[in-house]
Design goal:
This protein starts with a helix and ends with a helix. About 20% of the residues are buried. The protein is mainly alpha-helical. Helix content is about 85%, strand content about 0%. The mean pLDDT is about 90. It is flat and about 60 Å long.
Length: about 160
């Protein structure tokens, strides 16, 4: 029974480490650091990045020992960021006046607001997505209108 539990844990952990390492190599190392890397070099870098992610996850596990509920902590972190993503999605889908600058401003303000709400208030994490989406959408829409007016004024000159 113990061997089966350890085998299942090792299988789950190895797939997570493999996904993190391959994503890091393909999405960050190859495009930004070494575009013409050979297969042997990518394999070597991938092994070292696997070690890095293993140490990072071990450190994270040690630091989370004081957290009363890992599930709640994970959902809180996800809720803080999901509000901005939902707000920008709704901004792009529901309005025709949304633009890139306004969306970036909306996301930045939404994320900063959610971090402040998380740190300074006692609001439950279950409200974070709704609050963050509302702040992001409202700020992004207002900023988009502002930037579109600026471009109209600039083009009339």
């Amino acid at each position: 029974m113990v061997a089966a539990i350890l085998a299942a844990a090792m299988s789950n952990l190895s797939s997570s480490l493999n996904a993190l390492a391959s994503t890091t190599v393909v999405d960050f190392y190859q495009p930004f650091l070494k575009k013409n890397a050979g297969v042997a070099e990518l394999l070597s870098v991938s092994r070292w990045i696997t070690v890095f992610w293993g140490l990072a996850l071990t450190l994270l596990a040690i630091l989370s020992r004081g957290v009363k509920s890992v599930l709640e902590a994970g959902l809180t972190i996800a809720s803080i960021t999901y509000g901005s993503m939902v707000g920008v999605f709704l901004l792009g889908i529901m309005t025709k006046k949304a633009n890139e600058k306004g969306s970036i401003v909306g996301m930045a303000v939404g994320l900063a607001s959610m971090l402040a709400i998380w740190y300074f208030s006692t609001i439950a994490f279950t409200w974070y997505v709704l609050i963050g989406a509302t702040i992001t959408f409202t700020t992004g829409y207002a900023a988009s209108l502002h930037f579109s007016r600026q471009s109209l004024v600039g083009s009339q000159r």
